[in-house]
Specification:
alpha+beta; eight-stranded antiparallel sheet; three-stranded antiparallel sheet; 9 helices
């Protein structure tokens, strides 16, 4: 449905010359682009409690923001407002396909697919993001200004809107349906809708060191790990009881280092931490639990689809031992079906011919049976 056209460079050249280095406008990155969801359907999603939505608009010259769900928009008038929906990939199978052309970047870096509908003059204001984003223009037209990375001054335009003061533009262009604007972290930018328009942003984000250590601490506590104590049977007397001397400092540092060098603990943490869903999943389990015999038969004719927003990863060494990570949990399976499990982690959709050698494999049908009955995968 969506095929990325990089006419001026290859994917490798894009990563070499632009990724996290400088912004670039890719004209007609998606040729013959059509919105995968309508503005009315987007408004319908914004009525749901489970969907993260917000309105950004101006009132009496001041920036305002509100969080959904929303029932109506008449009070906003016909211009100068935007409706933003987070994690559209969790709620729209068609929209989620827009992420697929960007899989030359590993999926653990993916944040979500953010979507906005804006009226004429609508914007979320000039700001700086801490993540990489591919802004794909849908229907309508927007003017985008992007500044250079530098010492830009940010301020609170509203309690939930962090804006940046005026900047000189290094990109100042009107974008139309199918154009893609890539912006690395740290570059100020602002998009203003020139008419009613749709925009779709595929965002890639990493995790801060403090978030990783906080998550690791939670993982250690939850799994009763890392409880080893420092041992110092060769200690000698000190004349300065208030001092942490260099030898003791190294002893404490070694305790931390030994934990981080334990690949079993760290990989388990990273696998679980990185597969936790960024937003609430739209889990819909089967009306009646499927059996392995049901699964074996359906696998011959139907594609396996992964639930929107579900994160499933593996490490190249431990997957061959029968370990992967799904939605925040370590999952064990028979090592012989590792190639099939890798296919499921690498692809949102897996066709029957791709897994035909496992259709009657009891270990694989059991694995799929469990995942489908939870609601993580389903048959197309």
């Amino acid at each position: 449905m969506f095929e990325l056209e990089l006419s001026e460079f290859t994917r490798e050249e894009f990563l070499r010359d632009y990724w996290q280095k400088k912004p670039v406008l890719i004209r007609q990155g998606f040729k013959h682009f059509e919105d995968p969801i309508s503005a009315d359907e987007l408004a319908g999603l914004a009525m749901e409690d489970e969907v993260e939505s917000r309105l950004v608009y101006k009132k009496d010259g001041k920036w305002k923001a509100a969080f959904g769900p929303f029932q109506q928009y008449d009070h906003l008038g016909e211009q100068d407002w935007s409706l933003v929906i987070q994690a559209l990939d969790n709620w729209s199978e068609d929209a989620a396909k827009m992420i697929e052309p960007f899989r030359f970047i590993p999926h653990w870096r993916l944040d979500d697919l953010m979507t906005s509908f804006a009226t004429k003059g609508g914007s979320v204001g000039p700001h700086i993001d801490k993540y990489d984003t591919f802004i794909c223009q849908g229907s309508g037209t927007r003017r985008w200004r992007v500044g250079d990375r530098g010492n830009h001054q940010e301020f609170s335009a509203h309690e939930v809107l962090l804006h940046v003061k005026p900047f000189d533009a290094i990109i100042d262009e009107e974008v139309n349906a199918g154009d893609i604007l890539y912006i690395p972290p740290g570059y100020p930018h602002e998009g203003v809708s020139l008419n009613d328009s749709m925009s779709f942003s595929v965002g890639f984000r990493t995790t801060s060191t403090v978030s990783l250590f906080s998550g690791l601490a939670d993982h250690l506590i939850d799994n009763e790990l890392g409880e080893e104590l420092i041992e110092d049977p060769q200690r000698t007397a000190t004349e300065h009881s208030g001092e942490i001397n260099q030898k003791d400092y190294q002893l404490i540092k070694q305790q931390l280092s030994q934990l981080l060098e334990n690949d079993n603990i760290v990989k388990q943490f990273i696998g679980c931490f990185m597969t936790k869903a960024k937003h609430e999943l739209d889990l819909i389990a089967a009306d009646e639990p499927l059996t392995q015999s049901d699964i074996s038969e359906i696998l011959t004719t139907n594609a396996l689809m992964r639930l929107g927003g579900l994160r499933a990863f593996y490490f190249s060494d431990t997957v061959e031992q029968g370990i992967c990570y799904i939605d925040g949990s370590e999952v064990s399976f028979a090592a012989e079906i590792a190639p099939a499990v890798k296919l499921l982690c690498d692809n949102v959709e897996v066709q029957p011919e791709q897994i035909k050698q496992w259709h009657e494999n009891s270990d694989f049908t059991q694995f799929i049976c469990e995942q489908i009955n939870i609601g993580y995968w389903y048959f197309s």
